[in-house]
Every structure is written in structure tokens, then in C-alpha cells.
Amino acid sequence: xxxxPLLSVRNLSVDYASAHGPVHAAVGISFDLHPGECVALVxxxxxxxTTVGRALLGLLGNSATVNADTLEIEGRDALSFDNRDWRSxxxxxxxxxLQDALVSLDPLRSIGQEVxxxxxxxxxxxxxxxxxxxxIPTLEGVGLPDAATHVRQHAHQLSGGQRxxxxxATAVAGEPxxxxxxxxxxxxxxTVQRQVIDLxxxxxxxxxxxxxxxxxxxxxxxxxxxVLVMRGGEVLEQGTPAEVLENPQNEYTRSLIxxxxxxxxxxxxxxxxPLGTAGADERADSPQAVDPAPTAPATLTATGLHVTxxxxxxxxxxxxxxxxxxxxxxxxxLGIVxxxxxxxSTLLRVLLALQEPAQxxxxxxxxxxxxxxxxxxxxxxxxxxxxxxDPLSAFNPRFDVSQVLGxxxxxxxxxxxxxxxxxxxxxxxxxxxxxxxxxLQLSGGQRxxIAIARALTAExxxxxxxxxxxxxxxxxxxxxxxLLDRLKRERDLGIVFVSHDLGVIAEVxxxxxxxxxxxxxxxxSTDAVYGSPQHPYTQALxxxxxxxxxx
Length: 551
Description:
By secondary structure, the protein is α/β, with parallel strands linked by helices. Residues 262-298 are annotated as: Disordered.
């Protein structure tokens, strides 16, 4: 006897009203989700993936019109649900994990309180003491290390990966039958990605059904039973991961696969070597394939950096960085990789002189950069520019693009300012028509290009990219990486690229530095480190990365 599906969707369509008529966000979507199964929705930004996920939770709002021949959750007709019905379903029957944990978690609650509240809201018959006793095992179950300490901390006191694990803990705390996971691994390092993938597998073994919304095809390849490729609100192709990702029939699917960082075109790709490292030794001997080692003095040099900080409730200071040294050269890109809490963000703050090291020093163009008054640094700050993961958080929401770009040029004469703005827009391949638009009116890729353009207005020597492409779909990600590589060559830019994505580092960086617990465990050219990693931690990072070849 066939097990009834947890979800049954037939011919689901979602329209939004607009001044120019209805916008078809989803058209004719059909699939079933059975216990222990994972159905993945993939596609670039705006393809309709998240719209479908929100429809399954009743979270589309009054502006949306939902139609379907069938939309059933555990046999119940969700098309007839009122708000009370949806509230009874969320948490206890259908759980949700979003991409941005910092937005999703309550800033006024500790992580332990968040998980306990999720248990209570889901309708679990547990008293306060029982919930309190269950919190730490729940956090440990999602791979949060030292859960007994973190249970008392708030979201802003955790690293990005730790926050995401805490968010997943709140989603599974109510023991739902269905989990809607919207980009749950996008901002996570590879080891945490592996833990989340293993966790979802473990939960599926207990009968949890998962709808995975993701642009990460490698993660989809590892966990999904069925893949739906979406574009423009429609399903263009569907099947098992082996069918869709190894033998795609649709040209759009092929373009998505080709855009994955660290992969080669389908005609030459080796599915077992998605990083393209098999020939690293040969490439290292080829002057055409590898940029020569720098001979000019480094633009930015860090020597013997040490950083410690206090954690509430922990008597001993925690090591942020320990004896870290590096060089950044113009015209070369240095990748900094490591799992959450490894010290990547701390190192970035020290290099940007946003935090002073306890020991060690940083020099810029041979002159002291750390350990000096800010007044002496201010005139040189334009030489170092930051491109953040989320451009919206760095932009004034009241500004249009012309104001965003002009903000860094207030002391420049109007004519020269207009010329510089036009120049940087051309450099990032955006038309001048975007100048009158606000960032919220732009796509994610366009916003990231504006963030890069704003950094370029200062004519920097070094660009710091902090997870600058982690939130972008693979097509836009590939475009931004190509842009950064071109700018590096054309403008002789030095780039410091902080990322958890080893494929991205392989794509754009000449050199790589691997951090673990604030210590540099390995460094060298990207080809050498990836092709023949010497440290067990580097080997573990490379082994943990989800691979398209896993299907």
C-alpha cells in the first residue's frame, strides 16, 4: 500500500496584482512530497522558488491570488484554510528555515529561549522544565558546538554559521512532518553545510519531508530525491538529480550547471572532480595557467597578529587570532577560508583597522596601519574598500543609486563626480539608467554590482570582499566573479576574498590562506593548496564540500 503524501500540489499558480496587470509568479506547479523524501526547487533569483515555498505556508499575503487543482497538507485541503488553520499548521506540521538567521531570530531572546518557545508554539505537550531540558540536546543535534554556553547567548553574539544552526534548531524543535528549507545552507561554510545536510538526512530517516529551495546545485545533488528546475514561475525540467544534473535536457538547466564556480564546461568536466583540482600539478607548471608569484613589495602586510576577546559566562578569554601573518599584492587575489568561528571576520576587521590587534602589526604601503590614531589613518582609508555580503544593509534606503555612488565623492566637483560615476558604472557593466532607481528596485546581482561600483569610486588599491557572492544564485554569482577577475587585471586591484565556498575561492583567487581557530594552518597558491593539501583540516574542508558529482 502506497504511503499517502505529506504534500500534494497540482497545477499551483500564484499571481500578484500590479498596475500593469497580474504578475505570474508561479504557473502550473505540480509535485508530491512523501515521508522521508526531499523535493528541491532550483533556479535563479526571481524564478518563483520562494513564492511556491511561501504558498505552502500560507505566507503570501493579501496581494497574492493562489489557485490550484489540489493543495493538500497531510490530506487537508489548504485552499480552504483560514488564518487560524494556517497558524495551527506552522511549526507543528510544517516548519520553516530561512536564509537570514539574524533577521529570523528575535534579538531580545537568548538562543535557548528561542528553541523553547518554538517547542511551546508547536503544541508539544511539554512543561517548562521539560522544554528547558530538551533545549541543549536539540542544539547539539544540529551541530552547534558548546551548546551549553551558546544557549545563554543572543543571535548577534554568534557567528553566521552558529546562528543558522540555531535557526534550524528552532524549526525542528516542534518535530514537524514537513520542513520548508529556503536556502538553508547558503551562508554556511562547507563543514557546517555537511552537518546540515547530514542533519536533514537524519531527520528524513525519521519521516520528515523536506522541500528544499536552493540555488546551490551541489547541495541539491547530495540530498534531493527529485529536482524541479524553475524559471519565470514555470517548471522547465524535473526528475531525479541524476537525470536533471548529469543529463540535463533543457538549455537553461545546462546553463545553471555551467555557472557553478569551480566546475568546467560540461564537455570537459569530470563529475568526480568538481573543483577542477585533478590537474593542479600540471597547471602549476604552466606559465599560461598560473599567474607568476609577485615580485613587487606587498601593498598590505600583516605580521604576527594576535586577538583575544571575552565571551559572557566564560572565564578564559577566547582566541580570535594567533600569530597570523599575510601579504596582499596589487593585481592578485588572496582567498581567506575557514569554517564559522575560525577568525575570518576578525582578521578582516583587523586588516581594515576596524579592530586593533593585541599583538602584531599591519602596514599599508610600508607605513604603519595598525596602532596609530584614526586621524592619521583617515586620509588613507579610501585605499581599502569593503564589499559586504548584503549590499542593502550598507546602503541608505532613502538614496537612489546616484546618491549611493555620489556619497563617496562629495568633495569632488560636480562635473568630475558625474564622470567618475559614469566610469564606475561602465566598469561594473551597468547602464546609467539605474542611477534614478533605489536599491530595493534592483535585483540581487545589480545591487552587488552597485556595491562594487561604490567601492571603486574611491579608486582603491585593495578591495575586501566579505562573502560578496554567497547570497547570489549561480548565474549571477558567475557574473560577479568574472567582473572581479576583470577588475583585478584591468585596474591592478588587490583583492582579499573571504568566503566559505571553496569553489568560489578556486575560481577567483591566486593565493589562499586557511584559518582554523584563529591559526593559519595552510597557505600558498590556490592550485598548490587545492591540488595537494598538506594539513588534515584543509583536506577535511575539501572533502566536506558538496559536489555535483555526488549524484
